Amino acid sequence: xxxxxxxxxxxxxxxxxxxxxxxxxxxxxxxxxxxxxxxxxxxxxxxxxxxxxxxxxxxxxxxxxxxxxxxxxxxxxxxxxxxxxxxxxxxxxxxxxxxxxxxxxxxxxxxxxxxxxxxxxxxxxxxxxxxxxxxxxxxxxxxxxxxxxxxxxxxxxxxxxxxxxxxxxxxxxxxxxxxxxxxxxxxxxxxxxxxxxxxxx
Length: 201
Known about the structure:
- The protein is an alpha+beta fold.
- It contains five helices and eleven strands.
- The protein has two domains: 3-124, Impact, N-terminal domain (Ribosomal Protein S5, domain 2, 2-Layer Sandwich); 127-198, 2-Layer Sandwich (Alpha-Beta Plaits), CATH 3.30.70.
- It has helices spanning 31-41, 72-81, 101-118, 140-149, 175-185, and strands spanning 3-6, 10-16, 19-27, 48-55, 58-62, 87-94, 122-125, 128-135, 153-160, 163-171, 191-194.
- A five-stranded antiparallel sheet has the order 2-3-6-4-5, with helices on both faces.
- The N and C termini lie close together (11 Å).
């Protein structure tokens, strides 16, 4: 229901069997953010620049020449394992002459990001959604009470001939309960719809 968001760029270096692994993690809100992060921090003459990012249901990863599944996927697994969202991770490897094998590579790439995120400053993000609520005048007060109980807020109210038309915002995980309670209180007269274009996820 909630997840962690990085509050700033973090960096961690580890030497593993003479190879230097530099792990960087950055908060992102869009693919453009990721592109800018990668362009700024990737080192063209490094042996590998492997990466992954997670933004809600959107994710990608890249092994950048390492054996398939040994770099990008472990980096993504480290992000998910630490319960972070809206984050990009890049691991720059400078090869030191000793091969690590597929298991060793996966542990190295995933491990440097996992350990970086263990120490990372973060804030808890709770996904919210915006809804429109139409209901009779008599039920306005109960709507405000239920919003308060659900940690929601009323953004705007219009008074129309059928009653009120309100725009409300509340945590995604409380919407089902709020909808059921308001429908019961209004004897089914409440019309509650998601306002998709302004949802904040």
